[in-house]
Amino acid sequence: MRHLIDPMDLSVEEIDELLDLADDIIANPDKYAHACEGKKLATLFFEPSTRTRLSFEAAMMELGGNVLGFSSADSSSATKGESVADTVKVVSCYADIIAMRHPKEGAPCLAAMKSDAPIINAGDGGHNHPTQTLTDILTIRREKGRLNDLTIGFCGDLKFGRTVHSLIKAMSRYSNIHFIMISPEELEIPEYLRQEVFEQGGIEYEQVRTIDEVIDKLDILYMTRVQRERFFNEADYIRLKDTYILDMKKLKCAKKDLSILHPLPRVNEISVEVDDDPRACYFRQALYGKYIRMALILKLLEEAKV
Q1: Residue 129 is a catalytic residue
Q2: What tens digit of pLDDT does each residue of 207-266 get?
Q3: Angle value at C-alpha 298, between 297 and 300, nearest 5 degrees
């Protein structure tokens, strides 16, 4: 049985197949409208989610399948002390495939060991978020027409952002990708990423402190929220927070074909005035998330006719 726990579980060839399938779903939705009739997706979300949970549910419904599950641990037997392993073992008796989000890193991996249905990791702590990574990659390919020869800037919380970690690992496998890390010292990427991805892979990267000094170089700008709760003192947060707000003034020096991504939710790190700029891709990105999850569900259920 195949599960998706980490984006690196998929080869580059398998990712390309999923992207091609998602493109075909976008172009020919009627072709897939009944592909999952009689199938059930369980959404086990032990922490809050809007886009991820609803996009999984919309994906299964648009494939003709059904959805069951819960949207918080408070509405599950976890409140009675039931283990993740037992919950998943039981739910896999009722569902054909399971999407699971959990605050503890490694919980979906444990679930995959116990489940009788394919498990999709919908986010585990600060570790991985593979379907967001697939969403991001699909967005990049549709917006730029390629997945190589790109300069990608990651901005904001690079230390705790699981979407950032997953996308860096995935994009490092494509050719001629130059990474630029834009963050305060307190929120730089973890050391394991430096060693395991950049240094071992011989991949170039830069670390800078402001958007302004690199905005003109970027093909992709991946924004994330600078989180107040991650700072040791309020003064440091106040000193840095406005540095990472993207507005039209900062975009004056950017490329005309820059693509601005954000995993959402947004707080104030992208000014609303940017929303009407054609370079803003983040709402299209959210829509692409539905299509790539449709493709993944089909692949894992062995329903796809590729």
Answers
A1: yes
A2: 999 999 999 999 999 999 876 666 667 887 777 777 789 999 999 999 999 999 999 988
A3: 65
b/e burial code for range 84-106 (CB count within 10 A of at least 16 → b): beebbeebbeebbbbbbbbeeee
- Give pLDDT, residue 23: 98
Q: Say whether 39 is catalytic.
A: no
162 catalytic per annotation? no
Q: Kindly name the residue from 51, 209, 250, 279 that is annotated as catalytic.
A: 51
Residue 51 annotated to the active site: yes
Catalytic position from the list 101, 141, 262, 290: 101
Q: Are 277 and 251 in contact (CB under 8 A)?
A: yes
Compute the Cα dihedral for 48, 137, 211, 159 and give only its sign.
positive
- Distance CA(299)–CA(240), nearest Å, equals 43
Q: Which of 3, 40, 43, 52 is an active site residue?
A: 52
DSSP secondary structure of 22-70: HHHHHH-GGGGTTTTTT-EEEEEESS--SHHHHHHHHHHHHTT-EEEEE
What's phi and psi for 127, nearest 5 deg? -95, -75
Residue at 223: amino acid letter: M
Q: Given the residues 39, 40, 129, 299, select the one marked as catalytic.
A: 129
Catalytic residue status for 151: no
Tokens 């990791």 sit on residue: 121
Decide: helix, strand or coil at residue 290. Answer: helix
Q: Are 297 and 41 in contact (CB under 8 A)?
A: yes
